Amino acid sequence: MSEDVATILGEFNEDYGWFLRGREELLCKYVNRWVAIRKKTILDFDDDLTALLERLRTKGLKPEELLIEFLSREPVEAML
Hints:
Layout: H1 3-21, H2 23-30, E1 33-38, E2 41-46, H3 49-58, E3 67-71
Antiparallel strand pairs: 1-2, 1-3
C-alpha cells in the first residue's frame, strides 16, 4: 500500500470515529443533510448529495478522499 493511500485511510478512520462520537450533536445541526468531513471538520453540507459533490469539486476537493455521510434520525436502509 502506498504511503498516500495509507495516509488517506488513516485520516478517514479518524474522521469516521469523530463522526460516530459526535453524531448526536451533529444531528442537531445537520439533520436530514449530507455532510462532507475531513480532518474532523465539516467542510460543507447539503440536502442534495449531487449538489454537495459538485460544490466540493468546484472547491478543488476530491469527494472520494472525504468522509461523506447522511445524518438522519431514522434508520437508513441500504441495498448492497
